[in-house]
């Protein structure tokens, strides 16, 4: 047992506190050890003692009394710092359901954009990919993220993981590359939001109005993030329900209006030589990526391992259904594969009814907004982890 341990026990400090003192005490000054270092500067702690005089100025202290008083002060300081550190930690408020909602927007955030894969490969091939690709692409990402997040349950995700594995320089390279890519990705969402608006609305706006709409979109995302991750997760559930609602309405409206469903067309596909494999695979893989972002909020998940397993396990079938059901409904209504391009969900809805088309446009805007908000929440925590890391990461 070290001198610090002995003295810590004398003043009633626990093992954790004495460990902190042992780490904090300077060990590079050589003999006679850290005690002499602190006794060389007693006026900071004990004004009545002067090491330069032949005797104490007022009250005499024995070495044991000096050591006792010194470590009592240090122990009190450590306890205050520990309480302050606990108060500054983010509150763990994410349950399994809230984590699943965040994971949904980390990965897909709605089915919009998947139409291109149908046009590239046909309906049946796309359905097979919806079920098969998550097992070889999404599940490994999810398991890796869960394992690393549980090992290091702090906000920061891949910045913390890479820094732990490869050191400060590797962490620096990863952090800055990730931040540059994320900022570039975030800058696309205001543009996509505007592009989702109806064409006649876009044509009526001048340049400054377009800028104000995009700026308002950014301000909205920042404002919601200032509320905290708890409110973001609650809002994510509401946005998810709104995103899927027009597809359910479309399914019901088709029967109400007497529209004929072509369910047998769902088994059609293109010949292997006709499939645009590059477009098809890149679209599906992009649609199922993003599980590594779950680790960026690990410091705010309550319940540890059970919460992570339940949250990620629920998000995977949710992502599959998010693509499978809208494509099945849409393709059975409009089985012309050559027409399936980006934005085709909206066209199908407008063909059914104008009110349904407006609803679908609103859902696509909400999907884009939700993905932007959740991505910003993840990026802000990665940026925080970069800022509080070693000096190399902060420069």
- State the low-pLDDT regions, or none: 1-58
The end-to-end distance, rounded to whole angstroms, is 39 Å
Shape: elongated
- The number of helical segments is 17
Main pleated sheet: none
Question: What percent of residues are in strands?
Answer: under 5%
Q: What class, by secondary structure content?
A: mainly alpha
- Bin the helical content: over 70%
Number of strands: 0
Summarize the helix and strand pattern as letters.
Answer: HHHHHHHHHHHHHHHHH
* Gyration radius over CA: 29 Å
* Average residue-wise pLDDT: 80
Could you characterize what this model shows?
The protein has 395 residues and is mainly α. It has helices at residues 3-10, 15-24, 34-39, 63-88, 96-107, 115-121, 123-151, 158-186, 188-196, 199-203, 207-227, 229-256, 277-287, 305-333, 344-352, 354-388, 391-394. The radius of gyration is 29 Å and the shape is elongated. It starts with a helix and ends with a helix. The relative contact order is 0.17.
Helices and strands in order, then pairings?
Blueprint lengths: L2 H8 L4 H10 L9 H6 L23 H26 L7 H12 L7 H7 L1 H29 L6 H29 L1 H9 L2 H5 L3 H21 L1 H28 L20 H11 L17 H29 L10 H9 L1 H35 L2 H4 L1
Helix pairs in contact: 1-2, 1-4, 2-4, 5-12, 5-14, 6-7, 6-13, 7-14, 8-16, 9-11, 9-16, 11-16, 12-14, 12-16, 15-16
Quick rundown:
With about 400 residues, this protein is mostly helical.
Overview features:
395 residues; disordered N terminus; 0% strand; mainly alpha; 17 helices
